[in-house]
Each structure stands twice: as C-alpha cells, then as structure tokens.
Fold each of these.
Amino acid sequence: MNDRPKVLVARRVPAAVAERAAREFDAVLSDHDMDAAEAVRAAREHGIQGILSGPKVRLTAAHLPDLPASLRVIANPSAGTDHMDVRAAVAHGLVVTHAPDVLTECTADLAFLLILAACRRASDYARIMREGWRKPYGMPDLLGLRPSGRTLGIVGMGRIGRAVAQRARGFDMRVLYHNRTRLPPALEAGAEYVGSLEALLPRCDILSLHLPGGAGADGMMDRAAFARMKLGAVFVNTARGSLVEEEALIEALRSGHLFAAGLDVYRREPEFDLRLAALPNVFLTPHVASATVETRDAMGMLALDNIAAVLAGRPALTPVAA
C-alpha cells in the first residue's frame, strides 16, 4: 500500500527536482505548465495533498471551493506570489509558501549583466558580429557608456537590491537607493538613502528596479518618471513588467532621452511588445534571471522541502503571510 503523500507538480521542473518528487512522494508530474483549471482537476482526481505551483496556476478565490479537502499546501518555487490570491488561499486553510532567498544571487548577476550590456551597446555589437562584420569602425563609432564610476540608483533595497549594490561597488559606482524605509547602516554598506522616487530619478546615471509588483507600485515608471531621469540615463528592470508603462519607455528610448535599457521582464509574457525588440538601444532577455542549473534546482528543492514539512505536521520553511 502506497502511503506516501500525494503531490502534484503542476509545471515542468528540472530533472533533479522531478526525480526527488517521484522518489519521496506519490507524485503526479506534469509534462507542461498547467493552468488553474487543469491543476484543480488533477488535484481532485488524485486526492492531492500538496501542489508545487507555477505562474500559470492562477488560483483565485473562485477556484478554492473546487480543490479537494485533502489539499494542505501550495508551494511556489519562485519569490513572487502575485499570480495567485494568497489571502483567499490562507483563509481557506491552506499554507502558501515561496522561495524568497534562492534567486537573489542569480537575479543580481543578471541585473548587472543588463547594466553592462545596455551601457556597452551589446545588442549592436552582437548584431554586427552575427551579420558577418565586414565594415571597419573608427574612434567615433559604436560608442557606449563606461559603467565604472557612474551613479547607480536602486529602487527596492531588499535582498536582490543589496546584492546588486555589492556588485556595483566592484565597479566603483556610487549607489543611491529608494526604499519604503531606510535600512540600518550595516545593510546600507555605504549606499545613500533617498526619501522619494522623484528625488532619486534625476540623480542617477543608471536606474535598476528591484521592487515586487503590486502594493501600489504598478506603472510607477510612467512618462513623468522617465522625464525626471537624466538625459542619457540607462534603465534596467529585472523586477516586474507591471512596474513600467512600456509606451512611455519606448518613447523615452526613441527620443534619446534614455541612452539605453536592459529588460528581463515585460507587461505581457511571452507575447511582449515587439517594438522593444526593434529598438537598437535595448538589450532584452526572456525573463531568465533565475535560469542557472544551481538556482532552478534550489527553487524546486525548496518548494519540495516546504511541502514535506507541512505534510509532516511541521511549520513551513518559507511561508507567505496573508
């Protein structure tokens, strides 16, 4: 008789995560990223006790009555939970978890890649080489910006923002930041606090967003915000696409008010605005900040750790507060 906990892995996961799920649980492993309706059906059909969720499993309050009474925990292998109604799920008696720490270093690495690539015109350089580079370039041609020694503004000085600041110090950058509250001096590590976004924007050569979505921040980078940035500044976003009004960003890039942008997140994914791809001064990546072997494995393993803990009657390791 199989008395292992019944777990639904409702998205594709790395091989190491799938292997562990199959070994430790009575696991239903999906070969694609399920949506909410599919996940609810599978949970009911198999009497599921824990779900390893994903961004397409957009569980709302309306879905909760259809979930089986056996379900006890929904584990998100990413930091964000804005794809589901956490408050409703917790009120329904479910434990919701996420992975707030394991993405920090890789997201900071990618943010800095975007900073360097945007400043140094990596899109132009890559295009020229892929097209076969047969034209010589002289001293006035293909000039980027030197990131070293510039002023970096960070919006959202949480774990990832602080990790980006740490990398910036290696490039002799001056770091300014805006946060909901000022950090203790030990966490600031020499960064300068700026009390409002409006005051921060004109002082930055490079601006990098590290806020979660929601909480009144959606659309914060609008026409007025971009207009307040320095002429020739660089804009980077590895946080949430919803933070940016993309029409305003495209206008600022086309006009030359912004020198360049580096983007990993978009308002619509994967159907992002193709006008961004047509701009030579934009360096784009397809929402891959966590896409390393080490981090994706760690994300999935932490989700399984949370499921195992809850189903064994222990507290979740990284619960989400409602």
Amino acid sequence: MNKNKYVRIISVILLAVVLAFVFRSFLFASYVVEGRSMEPTLYEGNLLMVNKVIYNLTDVDRFDVVIFHANAEDDYVKRVIGLPGDEIEYKNDKLYVNGKFVEESFLSMFKQGSKKPFTNDFTIEESTGSTKVPRDKLFVLGDNRIESLDSRAFGFVSTEKLVGKVDVRYWPLKEAQLSFGK
C-alpha cells in the first residue's frame, strides 16, 4: 500500500470516531433499565436507545416513554400520562383525562384475566395537591402501576429534566422493539 491509502484509511476511521462521539453525546444515549416499574413493557437489564433531540423539535406526546433526571444521581424511565393543563383521574382501573375516558391499549393484554385493578383509583390532586398538570410539567407513571415509584409519589416532572424519548429497545435482541406506542 502506498502512503495515500494509509492517510485515507486513517481519515475515514477518525471521521467515524468523531461522528460516533457526536451522535452519542448530542443526539442519542444508551440506557439500561433498572428495576421493575415499567414491567411488562420494559424489564430490568433491557438496553434502550434514547433520542435526546426529539423534544427540541416536537412536543411531548401522551404515552411517550421517556427518560428524565430524577435527582443528581438517578435517571428514571416512565410513561407520560398527563400533559400541561390535564386533569388526571383513575377510576375503576380506567384513565380519564379532562373527564374523558382514554384507552391505554399498551396495558390491555396485561389487564386481561386479572381480578384486581391494575391501577388503583386516584386523582392528581390527591397525589400532587394540584388539580391540573402545571405548565412545563408532566405527570408520569410506570407501567407496573402496583410497584412503580412515579408521579403519584414524587409529583410532577419538569420538562427541563427530560433526557429524551425512548425510541428503541435493542437488548435482548429477541425483544428488540422500535416503538412503545399508545
């Protein structure tokens, strides 16, 4: 090989490293699920790819699965249930937003056959002291409603604390998934 080929190969490798650093640092992040609060959607040890820029381009949607800074050391993964201005209530294991029933189809297969409620009755006022989700805040729940530490316990989540939206579960491979939809 001549010297020009080595220079090109090294240039391509350096470019790939720089692009990987930029993607990893500014656009995407990888997270490992810890705990059981998002079961049956996500399980402990699942590896997730988080889109860190999506909320700079678009608003948060109800039922997005998000990562946020819970405190200085911990990040949590939860599902967005309440958006700014929403009144949230669970009654008879059903979600009501602003007084209207909203189907949680992502939970329906897990509710089947269960005699106990999957989500106990509550209102956000009981959990947070506020009747509505404040501006620039979100109300989040884990999908494992019985065992989840979520907005019912710690209150609203500031949109400034969002890391991003969970776009992909890539490990284990047999459970790879591109959407955690509605």
